[in-house]
Amino acid sequence: xxxxxxxxxxxxxxxxxxxxxxxxxxxxxxxxxxxxxxxxxxxxxxxxxxxxxxxxxxxxxxxxxxxxxxxxxxxxxxxxxxxxxxxxxxxxxxxxxxxxxxxxxxxxxxxxxxxxxxxxxxxxxxxxxxxxxxxx
Length: 136
Hints:
Elements (H helix, E strand, L loop, with lengths): L5 H13 L11 H8 L5 H13 L3 E3 L4 E7 L3 H18 L4 E5 L2 E6 L9 H15 L2
Antiparallel strand pairs: 1-2, 2-4, 3-4
């Protein structure tokens, strides 16, 4: 399971600040825009989505309202290429995964931090991630 992402998050935050980017939720109402795009799942939607995601290898995390999946590739180049594709999509969606990479293994946790749990954004990104992994 993931656990060492705090250092990476701090490094990325520092890089965003150095580049002059405002922190998430700052100026311009971006937190409100993010929340409105994060639409909560109804109980029925959630049950169906979780069945589909579990069938493709995702699991629910018991300690948080999040989903997790581990991917294994042939080598580091494949893993990093996959992460790059996911990163580009995550930027477009303004929804960033928690992830951990060692050589050919990539572990991903999805949660909508601004909403405190699993949302439609997580589902959409998980579906993209599965397609990206299948195309490597």
